[in-house]
Amino acid sequence: MATPIEKGRRSLNLTLRRELNLYANVRPCYSLPGYKTCYDDVNLITIRENTEGEYSGLEHQVVRGVVESHKIITRQASLRVAEYAFHYAKTHGRERVSAIHKANIMQKTDGLFLKCCCEVAEKIPLLFCVEYVNDNIEMGLQLVKNPALFDFLVMPNSYGDIISDLCAGLVGPLEG
């Protein structure tokens, strides 16, 4: 489903996510035998929190020529997606979960998300939790150069949008 740019309307995608409580966007990414791609051994899963972050739809014009967009991260939504992600990882035989964040820059929002992931990780001793700072270039390079470094990734909404598309590109084109 494409998200058209419409003035004064909330995205249909965002509305459906909220109304149907679609808080966890699960995207498995794996190589398929017989299809030639850059890698033949990709097997990872991304989960993105699907209702908050920069995609909350909270933006406005402050003054002419200046607009503002709000990134909303709540403890409730972060714990909910972290619990879902860690449970999913455990029940699907995954060994490590990478919490993708930029808490070094966005200390309050991404810091809260990371803290929630770490809290949940402490309750599930069989899984190893790894933090990855999403510097876009460094983390993306690691993912492209050696996807085997990653097993299972959980992240806020906008990072998940970009990283899951990048993962899809590892095993095939985004569009035909």
TrEMBL record:
<dbReference type="GO" id="GO:0004449">
    <property type="term" value="F:isocitrate dehydrogenase (NAD+) activity"/>
</dbReference>
<keyword id="KW-0560">Oxidoreductase</keyword>
<dbReference type="GO" id="GO:0005739">
    <property type="term" value="C:mitochondrion"/>
</dbReference>
<comment type="similarity">
    <text>Belongs to the isocitrate and isopropylmalate dehydrogenases family.</text>
</comment>
<dbReference type="Pfam" id="PF00180">
    <property type="entry name" value="Iso_dh"/>
</dbReference>
<protein>
    <recommendedName>
        <fullName>Isopropylmalate dehydrogenase-like domain-containing protein</fullName>
    </recommendedName>
</protein>
<dbReference type="GO" id="GO:0006099">
    <property type="term" value="P:tricarboxylic acid cycle"/>
</dbReference>
<dbReference type="InterPro" id="IPR024084">
    <property type="entry name" value="IsoPropMal-DH-like_dom"/>
</dbReference>
<feature type="domain" description="Isopropylmalate dehydrogenase-like">
    <location>
        <begin position="1"/>
        <end position="176"/>
    </location>
</feature>
<dbReference type="GO" id="GO:0006102">
    <property type="term" value="P:isocitrate metabolic process"/>
</dbReference>
